[in-house]
């Protein structure tokens, strides 16, 4: 950590760059805070300053701070900005995308929810290949049931934390989707794999069903900051 004199100097310099409403957000005490502001008004800059303030003011150890973004590029930029403000201490932070965060936690807690720690992450090409296999096994015509459409429908269901059994059975199309989704999950299971949407679903499952794991990770992160919070879907929110 930084010395008291150095820390105060950094805090003063940090706050001097902000207007009064931004300073209020950056120096907010404990408890939730939601920032509403228009595009280009400096929301991400305020979030970055908030992280730097928490570290410089000794209110949180860097490795007990979690900052979540939507893209790897945004995560790299955020980490770089914080490092420029507070130095090497920022290297110990958890800064990454929702999926990056989920992977790090699931690797540590995999056995609690019945997956192997060395699980393989299916990318888009892997998913399409798995769905082609499923259509072949179910003897469904890929021209009638395009893989892209099925992939999007399954992804949408997972973003809403819906399992195959949760798909409404209102039509034959729904029934096909349920069968394909269920078979696709079986392919993933046999392969020891998770797709990108599974990462968030499994993390949500872990934290909603395992009270010990929930308590552990809730205690680990004293502050959680989310960039572009308004764009989160249900799985990310949970």
Architecture overview:
It is built from 11 helices and 5 strands; from the N terminus they run αααβαβαβαααβααβα. It folds into 2 domains: 1-101 and 221-236, P-loop containing nucleotide triphosphate hydrolases (Rossmann fold, 3-Layer(aba) Sandwich), CATH 3.40.50.300; 120-191, Arc Repressor Mutant, subunit A, CATH 1.10.10.160. Strand 1 (65-69), helix 4 and strand 2 (94-97) form a beta-alpha-beta unit. It has 238 residues and is mostly helical. The protein has helices at 4-16, 20-26, 43-56, 72-86, 98-109, 124-138, 147-159, 172-191, 196-209, 211-220, 234-237, and strands at residues 65-69, 94-97, 120-122, 193-195, 223-226.
Annotate the secondary structure layout.
Layout: H1 4-16, H2 20-26, H3 43-56, E1 65-69, H4 72-86, E2 94-97, H5 98-109, E3 120-122, H6 124-138, H7 147-159, H8 172-191, E4 193-195, H9 196-209, H10 211-220, E5 223-226, H11 234-237
Parallel strand pairs: 1-2, 1-5, 3-4
Helix pairs in contact: 1-3, 2-3, 3-4, 5-9, 6-7, 6-8
Shape verdict: elongated
CATH architecture of the largest domain: 3-Layer(aba) Sandwich
Extract low-pLDDT stretches: none
Number of strands: 5
CATH homologous superfamily identity of the largest domain: P-loop containing nucleotide triphosphate hydrolases
What is the topology, as strand order, of the major beta sheet? 2-1-5
> Which range best describes the helical content: under 10%, 10-25%, 25-40%, 40-55%, 55-70% or over 70%?
55-70%
CATH topology of the largest domain: Rossmann fold
CATH class of the largest domain: Alpha Beta
Total of DSSP H or I helical runs spanning 4+ residues: 11
Strand content: 5-15%
Number of domains: 2
Oligomer: single chain
H/E series, N to C? HHHEHEHEHHHEHHEH
The average pLDDT value, as a whole number, equals 90
What structural class do you assign from the helix and strand content? Answer: mainly alpha
């Amino acid at each position: 950590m930084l010395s008291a004199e150095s820390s105060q100097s950094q805090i003063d310099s940090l706050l001097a760059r902000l207007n009064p409403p931004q300073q209020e957000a950056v120096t907010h005490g404990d408890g939730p805070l939601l920032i509403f502001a228009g595009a280009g008004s400096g929301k991400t800059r305020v979030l970055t300053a908030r992280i730097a303030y928490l570290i410089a003011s000794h209110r949180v150890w860097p490795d007990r701070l979690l900052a979540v973004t939507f893209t790897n590029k945004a995560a790299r930029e955020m980490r770089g900005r914080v490092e420029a403000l507070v130095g090497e201490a920022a290297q110990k932070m958890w800064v990454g995308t929702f999926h990056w965060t989920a992977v790090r936690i699931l690797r540590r807690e995999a056995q609690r929810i019945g997956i192997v720690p060395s699980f393989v992450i299916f990318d888009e090409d892997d998913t399409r290949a798995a769905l082609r296999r499923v259509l072949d096994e179910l003897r469904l015509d890929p021209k009638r049931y395009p893989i892209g459409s099925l992939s999007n429908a399954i992804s949408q269901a997972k973003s809403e934390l819906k399992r195959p059994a949760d798909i409404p059975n209102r039509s034959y199309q729904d029934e096909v989707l349920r069968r394909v989704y269920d078979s696709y999950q079986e392919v993933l299971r046999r392969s020891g794999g998770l797709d990108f949407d599974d990462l968030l679903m499994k993390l949500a499952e872990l934290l909603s069903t395992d009270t010990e794991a929930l308590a552990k990770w809730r205690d680990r992160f004293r502050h959680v900051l989310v960039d572009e919070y308004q764009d989160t879907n249900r799985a990310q929110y949970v």
